[in-house]
Task: inverse folding
C-alpha cells in the first residue's frame, strides 16, 4: 500500500463476515457495514483516519465490506448506496474528495474565486470504496460517507446496482440495518 506523506495510519482491513452485526446476504453475496459514528472510540478513529476525523465535518463514515465467495465476478459500476434514518429520511452520499476539501477548508481569494491548498491525499480518499469489480472468491472493503447523517441506530443502508459480470443480471438490493449501540437499548 502506498501511503501519502503525513498519513499515519494503516488501511482498515475487512474482517470475517460474522464479525459484523449489520449485514445482509443474497445469492451467495454478503454485504456488511460498520458505522463510525460518535460511539466509536478515539483510538479506533485514529487507527482508521489518523489525525483527521470526518465526523467533525458532519459526515458519517461507514466501512462497507462486500464478500464474494462465488465463482463469478461482481460489477459495481452501477452501484448506488443510500442511507435512511429510522424516520425514513434519506441522506446523500458524500464523495471522499468533497469531504476531504471540507475538512481541509478553502481560502477565498480576490472576489468569489475559491482556492484550495494542494495537500497530500488523506485517509478519507485513500480508503474510499471506489472499486468497480469484486473478483470471484474475493472480499473488498472501503469507506463511504454520508452528509449530515444522524446516529445510525435504527437506520438502514440500501445497496443497489450490483451485477454479475458474466451475465449482467442485477442482484436483488441489499438492506443493511444498523446495529443498536448499547447506550441506545432500553
Result:
Amino acid at each position: 500500500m502506498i501511503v501519502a506523506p503525513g498519513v499515519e495510519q494503516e488501511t482498515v482491513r475487512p474482517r470475517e463476515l460474522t464479525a459484523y452485526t449489520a449485514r445482509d446476504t443474497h445469492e451467495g453475496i454478503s454485504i456488511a457495514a460498520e458505522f463510525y459514528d460518535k460511539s466509536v472510540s478515539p483510538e479506533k478513529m485514529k487507527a482508521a483516519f489518523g489525525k483527521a476525523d470526518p465526523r467533525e465535518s458532519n459526515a458519517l463514515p461507514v466501512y462497507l465490506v462486500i464478500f464474494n465467495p462465488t465463482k463469478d465476478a461482481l460489477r459495481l459500476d452501477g452501484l448506488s448506496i443510500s442511507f435512511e434514518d429510522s424516520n425514513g429520511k434519506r441522506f446523500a452520499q458524500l464523495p471522499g474528495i468533497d469531504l476531504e476539501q471540507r475538512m481541509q477548508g478553502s481560502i477565498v481569494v480576490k472576489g468569489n474565486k475559491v482556492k484550495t491548498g494542494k495537500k497530500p491525499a488523506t485517509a478519507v480518499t485513500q480508503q474510499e470504496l471506489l472499486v468497480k469489480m469484486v473478483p470471484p472468491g474475493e472480499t473488498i472493503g472501503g469507506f463511504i460517507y454520508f452528509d449530515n447523517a444522524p446516529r445510525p441506530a435504527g437506520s438502514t443502508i440500501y445497496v443497489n446496482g450490483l451485477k454479475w459480470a458474466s451475465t449482467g443480471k442485477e442482484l436483488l438490493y441489499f438492506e443493511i440495518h444498523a446495529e443498536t449501540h448499547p447506550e441506545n437499548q432500553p
User: Anything to note?
Assistant: The mean pLDDT is 85.
